[in-house]
Amino acid sequence: MTYKTADLYDKYGDTLQVARPLFNNYGGNSCFHGHAYTLKVFEDFLLIKQTVQQPGEQRVLVIDGGASLRCALLGDKLAAIAVDNNWTGVIINGCIRDSTEINKLDIGVKALNTCPVRPAQLGEGQKEIDIRFAGVTFCMGDYVYADLDGIVVSKTPC
């Protein structure tokens, strides 16, 4: 499917939520979409690891990492697992690491920045809940569309 978030906004306007332009683009796919699967974690990647090991079913993993810039929540190994398990993209309100390797993978990633620091593995966090960041509330199953221009979210397919 080919689309542009700007064109989606022009067609669907106020029915869409538009994320604030806070994110950098990573991964080999700058344009990705799918149903949202939501996580909320803080400086802990165990729940992320467990999630990407499950079938992605062409979904987008949306992670509220509390906007922490102190460590990365996704690295090249987890991103590769996500690709292998059919996740189309990852949106992180936080950082990634191993960006050079992630940029070679067949996945779209949006994150606030990069950081070489590895997070904890405590398993703390929540999954399948409504999360809010960048002016958008992401709910399980929402339709998420992302490209180089930004991120739009809809309750119905566009």
Describe the sheet with the most strands: 10 strands, mixed
**What is the CATH class designation?**
Alpha Beta
DSSP helical segment count: 4
Distance between the termini: 11 Å
Shape: globular
Assembly status? single chain
Number of domains: 1
Fourth-level CATH superfamily: Ribonuclease E inhibitor RraA/RraA-like
Structural class: alpha/beta
Quick check: average pLDDT?
Answer: 97
Gyration radius from CA atoms, angstroms: 14 Å
Descriptive report:
It is a single chain. This protein has helices at residues 5-12, 46-52, 76-84, 99-102, and strands spanning 17-18, 24-26, 32-40, 60-64, 72-74, 89-96, 108-114, 126-127, 131-133, 136-138, 143-147, 150-154. Strand 5, helix 3 and strand 6 (89-96) form a beta-alpha-beta unit. With 158 residues, it is α/β, with parallel strands linked by helices. The strands form two sheets. Strands 1, 2, 3, 4, 5, 6, 7, 8, 11 and 12 form a ten-stranded mixed β-sheet that branches. The protein has a two-stranded antiparallel sheet with strand order 9-10. The chain has a single domain, classed as Glucose Oxidase, domain 1, CATH 3.50.30.40.
